[in-house]
Design brief:
- By secondary structure, the protein is of the alpha/beta class.
- It is 38% helix and 14% strand.
- The chain is built from 12 helices and 11 strands.
- Helix 2 packs across helix 3, helix 4 crosses helix 11 and helix 7 crosses helix 8.
- The longest helix is centred in the last third of the chain and has 19 residues.
- The structure holds N-carbamoyl-L-aspartate.
- N-carbamoyl-L-aspartate (NCD) binds next to helix 4 and helix 8.
Amino acid sequence: MTAKPTKDELRLLSSRDRLLHLIYTQQLSRGLLEDLFVVAEKARGMYASGIGATFLQNCLPNKRALLYFVQPSTRTFLSFQSAAEILGISTARVTSTSTSSEAKGETPLDTVHVFAMYHDLIVMRYPEAGFASKCAQYFRERDLPKHIINGGSGMDQHPTQALLDVYTLHREFYRKGGIDGKRILVAGDLARGRAVRSLIYLLSKFEDVKMDLVAPASLGLHDDIKEHMHENEMPFRESENLMDFIGEADAVYMTRVQDEYDDVEPGGELDYDRFSLTPASLDAMSPNCAILHPLPRRSEIPVSVDSDSRARYWEQVENGMWARVALIAHVLECDLRIKTA
Ligand code: NCD
């Protein structure tokens, strides 16, 4: 895991109230989150009409974005590409270091420097936890007015997934008192799931949110996030069995076992049923509970749950695109135009 970013490091990633780069989930304040939700709602409403869609298309026609995704991705990649296109930004993609000059021995920072000469924004999914942050520092030292958004950094962080997860919860609880005070259960691979790690950071920005953590002992949440919960007085309970807490949850966030990292930290033989939705756990769940998942899912949510009125994971995908529209509009400074249109 990466070291916790210092206050100074976080400060240098913004200029006044505006993010220059989004590298860490910790950069998203509650005020900014609420502002992004307003822009996301406004943009999706506008897009429904031809005139509104054309307005959005004309927001950033002179900007270019590179999607530099060297870890597998379809939904996050397409979500960013669609979000950029909605705002009139043209996009290019690089999906492997073997097709860039890194294969000829170029340093990763030189490679990104070249990308920045052609593009205003680089959305980056990279296996090394600290790389996006290194790039932001590199741009700062060279006064390059370019932006980076972290689209997933190894096992560490996935701030835009957390943003869309919280946006989904915001929409869900909008008429039910908001996210404050809710009890959220997260289940699965809490050790290596960057999406769930980032989500907990973000939920700590709300008042009185209570967490229930359900994971096999070998894949429990790491101490860095537990310390963060302690520091933010965020109560949590832990169990290895979903049935222990599921009846009390306002939302259940299921995750996949991240076995692509098994050579790093073996997950071992697991009884997946204890971390999967079963007829018994669905029966125990409240009728108003929302079921979320960052996707891709495996057996932790059987396909039969798709028709359950509590399933929100498909809407969550769509919400992701609008949350990213709002974020890109913020970073590239056209959010006010959208809000006041
Ligand atoms: C997540 C990821 O890549 O971290 N997926 C995503 O971005 N929607 C979760 C996962 O891979 O399990």
